[in-house]
User: What shape does this take?
Amino acid sequence: MTDIPGLPSRRSFLKGSAAGVALTGLALSAAEAEAAPPVPLDQYEREYLTADEWAFVMAATARLIPSDGDGPGAIEARVPVFIDRQLAGDYGRADDWYMEGPHDASAAPARGWQTPLSPAEVYRQGIPAFDAWCETTYGAAFAALDADRQDEALAALQKGEPGLDPELRDFFTILLANTKEGYFADPLYGGNHGMQAWVYIGFPGARAAYREWPERHNIEYPLGPVSISGERA
Amino acid sequence: MTKLLRILAALVVLGVVALLAFIFVPVQRTQPATELAADWQPEPGQGKYVMDAGDCVACHTAPDGEELAGGRAIASPMGTIWSTNITPDPETGIGGWSFEDFRAAMIDGVAPDGTHLYPAMPYENYRMMTEEDLRALYDHLMTEVAPVRNAVEETSLDFPFNLRFGIRAWNWLALDKGPGFVPAGASETEDRGQYLVEGPGHCAACHSPRNAFMAQDGKTAGDANFLAGGTIDGWSAPALHGEGSSLRDWSTAEMAAYLATGRNVHSAANGEMGLVVEHSLQHLSDADNIAMAAFLKGLDGDAGEIPATLASNAGPMPDAPADAAGKATAEMLTEAQPGMPEGARLYLDNCSACHFVTGKGAPEIFPELQGNSLVTAAKTKPLISVILNGADVPSTAKRPMHLVMQGYADRLSDDEVAELASFLRGAWGNDAPAVSAADVATVRAEAATH
Assistant: This one.
């Protein structure tokens, strides 16, 4: 594990994975439990991110949805896998977006995507730029900072303090959005592992059949979620 | 001793002569049930209508092929039978056939050169067709269908089924009815329905069982096993009347709606029956679909109320509440407790959005699973196949919506499909034995053919 530089911390990662595996084992049906456990995050074969980028995404998502709150964190939910796969796919390439410009970085956020870079390119250029700012400010790359410093750095990034290039304006915005998406999206896309995020918030998933329930007031819906591929929890 | 040998030799010679005669003496063609005047002419459109009623297109058109130009592979227990070109092309079709040749093919199963047709061609049933309809059909095929030059693959079955003279013996056993139609005389409407069902519609080809010789066991209304349920390509064709028939509770109007549109408040036509509705029944008149429905209902003793026309789209129809037999299952599903059996949980997770906790489905859209013949059939392949591969109901003129059910092959394991199917076969008062994961694996391994 030492070959993965700058995890949030070795201990919290181990704790998180162990908790994730334990929770999953309890939650899944017998059939699902027999399925092979997922590849540990440190052995995951990345589709898009480089080793350094992966370390950043692991560290950043672990602070955006930390593992030490009530519910599962981004790491247990395998959010970094979701982000890697999305960046390798049509989202990352902005395949079906209008990308011809003009792009105006001073336009209001509601004006949409204002950079010629695809989301994958924003990660590729944003991570080293932000890490360089962390080096200057804190003396180490983001992934190597302690949790408090990381929170401080992310807050600064959100406010635009590192002064990244205008093309990287939305780096934090998409990082946060992708983290939430990876946390709550169907497990089919690599995140929300074992539907932990759905179990946590009581979302019953892709069952789409609750005709008997709208008029049954103040009764908790008894069943756990089901995913698109049929996993049950 | 010499005497005995001489007798034996004589017997052998006699046997050989009989066999040669059996093989080589030309078959006598059956004479028509009625003689028509030489100048008899069909009404305009009559021949096309007979063709629709007989569903000729279904077998005599290859997938993506020219209509009626043959070349469709018909799976049979003996091997693949290739349908022939019945357009009037002189070389590859039936352009050179006289009406007498055509009639012989339709009612005796014999081609002009004396070759026996394989009984995949339902001449057992077409034999009941009237001389008028045969003439009209011949007239249509010869004068209104464009000739298509299409030499189809020759059927070549393995020994002994490649010896077509064997069919001669089979015909002695199988062609015990006809030629021509004998109405039961229940009413004019039911007699018309009886004619369409027994003759051109050749319903018995699938819906009657087969006897030890693979001939239809029950071809006409008086026969004990007539339409008592059969098998086609591993699918059960349900009994259309009688004690165990799931159609027994359908009204004549509901049955007619199913025939004309492929759907009614209980069920939806898929698989082979979907094709019958698509290619044949939806093109028949309301009066004829009602007549067939009335005849089929009459087989249970009383056709009940016979509607004058098929109701047009009645607008939204509320789905039915659970009945007494289905109450316990509906309540269990409604309560949605985590401890419920796996099959029930799978039903909630995958099926209940459309078929509902009552198992009643939605009228004319999602079929009822309670008392559904496909669900409870002795042959479990159709149910498993529908769960794995989905199903669809064709668009029909009166109900244009093409209804599609997705397949769950990617979502459910063999064990899960078995649990789900077994649940369905015992839910809402259904009472059929469980399905095993091995059954599911077998169906999964076959290509989705329906």
